[in-house]
Amino acid sequence: MKGARRLSAADSWFLDLEGPTVHLHVTGVLLIDPAESPRRFDYEAFTALLAARMGRLDALRERIVPVPGGIDHPVALDVGADLDDHLERVVLPGAPGSREASAEFHRVLSEFVSTPLDRSRPLWAMLFVEGLPEGRVALVAKLHHALVDGVSGVGFMGDLLDLDRDAPAGEESSEPDSRAGGSGVDLPSRTDLLRDAVLDRALDPLRPIRAVSRTGASLWGAATAALSARGEREDSAAPFAAPRTSMNGSLSGAREVAFTSIPLEEVKALRRAHEVPLNDVLLAAVSSALRDHLQEHGGLPDRPLVAAVPVSVHDRSGTDSAESTNQVSNMFVNLPVHLADPLERLAAVHRSSLRAKAVQGAMGPEMLGDLVDLFPPGLLAGATSAWVGSGIANRIPPVQSLIVSNVPGPDFPLYMAGAEVVGLFPFGPLMEGSGLNVTALSHNGRFDIGVIACPDLVPEVDRLVEGILGGFEELRGP
After folding, report:
1. Helix (H) or strand (E) holding 245
2. Packing angle between helix 342-361 and helix 461-476, nearest 10 degrees?
3. Which one, of 311, 309, 331, 320, lies nearest residue 9 by Cα?
4. Is the predicted pLDDT of residue 2 greater than 90, yes or no?
5. How many CB atoms neighbour CB 354 within 10 A?
6. What percentage of the chain's residues is helix, strand, coil (to nearest 5)?
7. Does 206-404+433-476 match 4-199 at the fold level?
């Protein structure tokens, strides 16, 4: 089919896992300061810039089309995008920075991240928010995880943003239908979709055999690494090994977000002072915040929480995953919230992280896609729906307590139509059974942290963000 590509197994995973209460989009808040922009920066300037760059932003032009019967992975079809269907301008009430404006900004953000993307269109949406303090604006963007992961998300920003304040916006894209929303672009018929799916399966009959072989090799490697890794048994973390807490249970569709920032050099100073990786410093700070949170909401467990930590494998990917947007693996790390001393918590996080890295490194980079290909097409989506609908997450140990992700971003300034991007706050998805996701992104000397939660499981997310900053402060010592 012209203009179409078949999604990889790893990308399809994020479509199969989605449901009414499990939203698999990722969101970013770009805080933009037009004060020193050499030209006007407003909603009209932004829409002109976006229209000019649609030709290079493939993810914004592609609609995901499922195959009838789910006999193979969906296809992404380039249909263009009508910007009016995906963009919304928001002007906050009251004086910039007032309590009224801040409350409305929080409400708008929470409603935006709580709303699933419409699969009848390309899977993205943006808000252009005006009325922030100091004349700043916020661009709030969400894209489906099937189209972007942490590393590819940074690449997406590189296509949208500039390295130079004086860079030209460019001429309007000549890409067909970049503004017209694909008028005149016919979707493939059921017959075409079925024919191409059967042909793709026939041309690659060994796909499930490869998946079984590589999955077995990955599991054997991971088991061997787990047994041989240095450290005590209590340093090991594993799925379904976390204690049940107030943060764990079936999700509702509601989401709330909060974000903050800390100078990157302060985090690096803690890394150097304690001789641990930067990611361990983040995990220890999150542990501190969760210790305080759980003491107020449901009580502390007597053993560590388990954080699922996504790990990019873009540099390890083989030929099978080269076309996959999502090239990510996962490791499980203990968060010892039951330990009172912050330095003991950091040491325990570091030991657990070492073991987790050894296990994760032994798994093949195609592990996620291989797991999808182990199941008959369509089965995973049905199993996910049954899992969520049964409410079993309220009765069994969680797969993980929460998700914590750390994405390295550009260490130089970025601009949008001459206005500087002064904040890049990321928000990942929540998985059934776990009500919290903490994602950090480094950019131009800042360590920007976004927290998203299901408020039915994790209330007072703004206080949780303050607790993370307090966790960094604890590690500095007296």
Report:
1. none
2. 100
3. 320
4. no
5. 17
6. 40, 20, 40
7. yes
Q: How distant, in Å, are the alpha carbons of 65, 105, 133 from that of 94?
A: 43, 11, 11
| Chain center to CA of 446 | 19
What pTM does this model have? Answer: 0.88
H helices within 251-336, ranges in order?
264-274, 278-296
Q: Collapsing DSSP states into helix, strand and coil, what is residue 72?
A: coil
- Tell me what pLDDT residue 176 has: 42
pLDDT, one tens digit per residue, over 219-252 is 555 556 555 654 555 678 888 899 999 999 999 9
Residue 200 has pLDDT above 80, yes or no: no
- The set of residues, in sequence order, having a beta carbon less than 8 Å from that of 206 and lying 6+ positions away, is none
Closest among 464, 463, 393 to 432, alpha carbons compared:
393
d(CA 417, CA 413): 13
Give mean pLDDT, residues 393-401.
Answer: 92
Looking at the structure, give the CATH architecture of the domain made up of residues 4-199: 2-Layer Sandwich (3.30)
Is residue 73 part of the annotated active site? The answer reads no
Architecture of domain 206-404+433-476 in this structure? 2-Layer Sandwich (3.30)
Which pLDDT score, from 0 to 100, does residue 465 have? 97
Q: pLDDT tens digit string along 430-445?
A: 999 999 999 999 999 9
Between 293 and 410, residue with greater pLDDT: 293
8 A C-beta contact, residue 218 and residue 370: yes
Is the predicted pLDDT of residue 365 greater than 70, yes or no?
A: no
Please answer whether residues 25 and 117 qualify as being in contact, where contact means their C-beta atoms are separated by less than 8 angstroms.
yes
- Could you state, in order of their start, the residue ranges of all structural domains in the chain? 4-199, 206-404+433-476
- Give the active site residue among 23, 73, 86, 145: 145
Pairs from 64-69 (Cβ < 8 Å, separation ≥ 24): 64/7, 64/15, 64/119, 64/123, 64/144, 64/146, 65/4, 65/187, 65/188, 65/193, 67/193, 67/194, 67/197, 67/377, 68/190, 68/193, 68/194, 69/194, 69/377, 69/378
Which tens digit of pLDDT belongs to each residue from 138-158? 999 999 998 887 677 777 887
Tokens of 82: 């009508």
